[in-house]
C-alpha cells in the first residue's frame, strides 16, 4: 500500500528558519497536542519559522504568514493551535477568523475550533461562548476572544486585533478583506496575519498575488517580514506517477494514504481540479507574472501629497531605445526612517530635446547636482549637454547597472522603498522583465510588447546614485545631551 510510511517532504518554496532567533513554535505544538493533534513534521517546521521572535521587541518577527498547502494536510489544526496559543498567552487578545463566507466560518468556529477545545484539557480556560447572530465568538477566562467576520469591505474594521487568519484564501478575487483587516493589526506589537489556502484557480486573484510575492521573495533570497511556505509539486512532474504525490504532500502516512488519493485521480472526471487540490498546480496563467508582484509593489506606496523626502535630491535620466521618450526621476532620503530610499518619476517627455532644460529647472526648485544615466543607453548622448549646465554626470554600466537593478528589485519586493502610486511608474514596472546576464544576475529590459520602461529605469538609476553618493547626515545639536 502506497504512503503508509510517514513522509516529510520539504516545501517547494519555503522561508528558512533563522537559528539566531528564538521561537514559540514548540509552545504552539504543545497546545496542539493538548487538543489531540500532535503536530506533523511539516506543521512543527512551519510553526518554528512562523513563530520566530523579534529580539528587539519580543513580539513575532513575521507580521504576515502565508501557508499554501495541499488538501487534507492539516491547515485547520495548525490555525487552531496558533489562535488558541495566542488566546492563552495574551490577556484580552482579539482575534479574527474568516473562511469562504460567514456561514462557513461559523461552522468552522463551532466544529473545528470550539468543540476540540471544549473536549480537551484546555476547556478549563474557556469562558461561555457567545452564539448570538452576528456576534459569535469563542471567549476565554482571561478576556481573549476569537470572533468570525463576514467577507465584505467592512470586515475587520473597528477595534485593534492581535491576530487574523484568512482561511480558504483562494476564494477571494481581490484584497478587499485584507484591506479591512490590516489596519486593525498595525498598532499591536507582534500582531500577525495568517493567510491559509490550497492552490487557487484563475479567479483567485488575491491568493495569486500572495503566491507570486512569496515565490519571488524565496527566489531573491531577501529577508522580509513575510513568512512564505508552499507545498506543491514541480510543474514538470508526472501527475500519474505516485512518487510525485509522495514527494510533495506532507500529510501522507500521517493522516491520509497515497493509494486512496491516487485512486481519486483515476476516478476524477476533472483531472485539472485533482491536480490543483493534491499537487498544488494552478491553471495556466494568461500571461507572465509581473516583475514585482502587486502585493509587494503596493507596500512601497506613499501619499503623493504627503511630505515624503528630505535633504538633497539625486537625479537620473533614462531615454527609450528609439529616443521616443525620456524620463526624469529623483531619489532622496525618505522621511520614513524604516525605508531605504524615496524615489519619484517627475516627468516623461516626448523625445530628448527639452530634457536638459527641464532638469535645470527642477534643480533650480529642488536642488541637486548629481545625475545618473545608463552608460550603455540612449541617454549617453545627453552627457555633454548636462555637464555644460554644471551637472555632475555619473554613467552607470557593467556591474553597477546589474547592482542597481538587483538592489532596486530586492528593496521594492519587501516594501522598503517609498514612492507615490503613480500610473506612469506602475505601467512601466508592469512592462519590465528580467534579462539574465549570468547565473542569477539580471538587468531590467522591455517585455515582448516593447512598451516604454524609461520611468522604471530612471528611478532605479536615481536610487543607485542616492545610495552611492549620500552622506551620513546628522544634526550636531541632537548629539548634545
Question: What labels describe this entry?
Answer:
481 residues; alpha/beta
Can you walk me through this structure?
This protein has 481 residues and is α/β, with parallel strands linked by helices. It has 15 helices and 17 strands. β11 (325-334) and β12 form a beta hairpin. It is elongated.
CATH class of the largest domain: Alpha Beta
Number of domains: 2
Rounded Rg: 26 Å
Secondary-structure arrangement, i.e. CATH architecture of the largest domain? 3-Layer(aba) Sandwich
- Average pLDDT, to the nearest integer? 92
Biggest sheet layout: 8 strands, mixed
CATH superfamily of the largest domain: P-loop containing nucleotide triphosphate hydrolases
Quick recap:
The protein is α/β, with parallel strands linked by helices and about 475 residues long. It has helices at about 25-35, 40-50, 75-90, 100-120, 175-185, 205-220, 240-245, 260-265, 270-280, 295, 355-365, 385-390, 400-415, 425-430, 455-470, and strands at about 15, 65-70, 95-100, 135-140, 145-150, 165, 190-195, 225-230, 300, 310-320, 325-335, 340-350, 370-375, 390-395, 415-420, 430-440, 440-445.
Record the SSE blueprint.
Elements lengths: L12 E2 L10 H10 L6 H10 L13 E5 L6 H15 L4 E5 L3 H17 L18 E3 L5 E4 L14 E4 L9 H10 L6 E6 L7 H16 L5 E5 L11 H5 L11 H10 L3 H9 L14 H4 L3 E2 L6 E11 L5 E10 L6 E10 L4 H12 L3 E5 L8 H6 L3 E5 L2 H15 L3 E4 L2 H8 L1 E7 L2 E6 L7 H16 L12
Parallel strand pairs: 2-7, 2-8, 3-5, 3-6, 6-7, 9-15, 10-13, 12-15, 13-14
Antiparallel strand pairs: 1-8, 4-5, 10-11, 11-12, 16-17
Helix pairs in contact: 1-2, 1-3, 13-15
